[in-house]
Request: fold
Amino acid sequence: MNEQATVPATTHDANEISLALLFSIFVKRFVYLLIAVVVGALGALAATKIFMTPIYSSTAQFRVDNTSTNVSTTGSGYIVGIEYIANNYVEEVKGNVFLAEIVKAYNNSITDENGALTAEAVEKGLSTLTVEKLAKMITVSPKAETNIFTVKVASPNKQEAYLILKVFEENTPAMLTKENSKEFLGVALNNSGSIAKSPDSPNTMMNVLLGAFLLAMLTYAAFFLVAILDNTVYDEDALKNHYTVPVVGTLPQWTSAEEATVQKGIVEDLKEKAQRIIRNPLERRGAAEFVERDYEGRLLSADTPFFITESLKSLRTNLSYMGVKKDGCCVYGIVSAYAGAGKSLMAANIAISFAQLNKRVLVIDADMRCPVQHKIFKNAVPKDKKGLSEVLAGIDGVTLQDCICRNEEYGFDLLCSGHIPPNPSELLASAQMTALMEQVKGTYDYIFVDLPPVLETTDAGVLSGQVDCYVLVVRAGHSRLNAVTEAMETLQATGAHMGGFVLNDVDYKRGFGYGSYKQRRYGRYGGRYGGQYGRYGQAADKQAE
Reply:
C-alpha cells in the first residue's frame, strides 16, 4: 500500500496571470473575438450614420505684412513683432465686435430688403446668423512663428460654411486695418477656402476601427475575468498543480456508437444546450455536476473506441500498483464530490477492465440512497433482486450468496444495493458490514465499492476502515476545485486513504499540447491498432497477469 497522501495543498493560485494564459484565452475565444470585431465595427458604423451629424468645414489663410518702407523685414526683431501682431489679430477676429460685423454682412447677403431669406438661400438650406452662433462655428488660430493665421468655419451645411468663410475673406483685411494707426500694416488673403468635399467629422473609419477594438477588448476582458475567477477543473494539470494526490487516470469524452451515427445540426445542438441550462442553470459553474445518465454503449467492450480502451487500461495499471497488498484482496472506494461526475459508470468500467485480466472482481453498490449499478447492468440483474441492504438488515434470512449476481458477459460479480433503506449510514457503519467485507476479501482479488457522493451524504466516510484507498472521480468541465478540496478534507477527516483522482469526461479539443495531440494520435491510429489489439489483446492481458 502507498503511504497516506498529504492533505491537499495548493502550490499556486488557481489561475496565475501569465502570457500563456492570455494567449490561451485569445486562441480559445478567437471566434467570439472575431464576432465582437464585426459587431463592434457594424455598430459603430450604424451609430455614426444614424446618430452623428456630419460637420463640414472651409478654411482660409491670411497673411500679415508691414507695408512701411522704413522698416527692415529681415531682422529677427521684425519677425517677432509681426508674429505678435498676427496673434493680436487672431484675438480681434474672435471678438464679438468683429463677429457682429461679419454676421451683419452675411445676413445681408442671404436676405432681401424685407429681411426674408432669398429663394437661393432657402434652396441651399441657409439661415441667418447670430454672434453667439457664429462664435461656435469658427476657429481662428495663428501659425506658430509666422505672420499667418487661419480662419476655419464648420457647419452641418457645407454651403453655409463656405459662404460664411467667403464673407470673412472679403471683409477681414479691410476690417483689421481700417484704423489710421494700422496704415503701415497690411492683411492679405494667403489661401482661399473651398467647398468641403467630405465631412471633417465624424471620422467614419476611425469610429469603425475604434468600435471594433473596444468591443473586442471588452469581450476579451469578460473572458479573461471568467478565466481568472473560474475554478472549474478542465484538465489534469489543474489537479496536479493544486494537490499532492496523484491523477491515476483520465478518461476522454465518450460518445456511444448510437450517438456517433446521429448527425446533429447546429440548431439541434444549440437547442439541446439551452434545454440543459434551463434544467440546471448552474451546470457550467460546476455547482451541480449534472450529467444525463445514459449507460447504453458506454461499457468497456470490443466495440469501445481505442483511445477509451487505452485510457481504462492505463487507469487499471495505475490502480494495480497503487493497491498492491501482501495479503491479497484490495478494496477501492469509488467516490465523487457531487452526483453526476460519472463515478458509478467509472466503477463499472474499472471492474470490467480488471475482470479482463481474469481477476476475481466484485462490485458492491453501496450507494443505497441513489443506486445505479442495477441500471447499468440491467440485463444481468433479475428484477426485485435482493441486495446489500437486505443482507445488512438480515431481512428474511437473506444471505450474501443469495444477493451476489454473476455477470457472465463481463466476467465479474455484482452485489446490488437492494431496496433503499431508511438508515443507510447506520447499515454501512454496522458490524454486519464489517463482517461482510471480511468475508468477501477472502474470496476476491479486487473489490470496487460504489459509494455515495462525499459532499451530499456521510456514507462514504464510514467505510474508511474497510476501504484500502479511495478514488475520487472528477468530471472535467463541471467539478470545481473548492468542491474537490472539501471532499478530500471530508474523507481524510475520517482517516481515509486518498489513492488518487480519476478525471472523467475530458474534452481534449478544448486544450492545447499533449491533450489534443493525444486524441488526434489515437483517432488516427485507432483503426489500425484496434484490429491488432483485438487479435493480440488477450495474449497481452494474460502476460500482464
Observations:
- Residues 61 and 150 are 4 Å apart (CA to CA).
- The first strand starts at residue 56 and ends at 66.
- The radius of gyration is 42 Å.
